[in-house]
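so my prof wants the structure for this chain in the tokens format not the other one, which i didnt know existed until like an hour ago. anyway here's the sequence
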Amino acid sequence: MQHVLFFDIDGTMLSTGGAGQRAMELALVEEFRIQFPFEGVLMAGRTDRGIADEIFARYALVDTPQERERFMLSYLDRLPQCLQTLPGVLLPGVSELLHQLHRDENVHLSLITGNYVEGAWIKLRHFGIDRFFETGGFGDHHAHRDDVARVAVETVRGHLNREVPDGSACVIGDTPADIQCARAIHARAVAVATGMYSLAELQPHKPDHLFADLSDTAAVARSLLQA
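here's what i got, hopefully its the right format
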């Protein structure tokens, strides 16, 4: 049986040092003339579409497809420079784990992320881990991660030309939303406390496995590849 492993990006595999939020802030300040646009806006575990929905509603921006695209492109234009200037890092154990899983012909690595699709690839390329992934669900069109997860499963089905049986997939993430979206697609949930949520805050959401980080590659791999 081939294992399908869906990785979240921010807070799970890497920390951008706040580059994503900074790029969005610059886009809103410089292009839309909004000061302090993210005051009181929760970012962790949300999709870029959901964040944009809140911003457009909060500041009564003209909400058309053209303006949504202008916001997205303004953000994407600024993201590479923000990644260069802010102190981002790959999180502990990520490189080793991806190399090990990528060598296993019974593993398909995919993504479930709230990032816009191009934003996701910009981040992965910046940290040199884009080559491990071909498929995924992204945050361009859906405000809720459960819907992103369902799209990710459909994408993998098409790519592999087979079903993804219940229980055969696993979602690896750092927020309660990642655990919830795993349940939405009948996948196992592996939570890692490398984002803004601690072990104590993640535990009540009852992930199948919970790690402080991904540095114990052997133990994490065993949890991911359980039948």
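also thought this was worth mentioning. Residues 22 and 105 are 38 Å apart (CA to CA).
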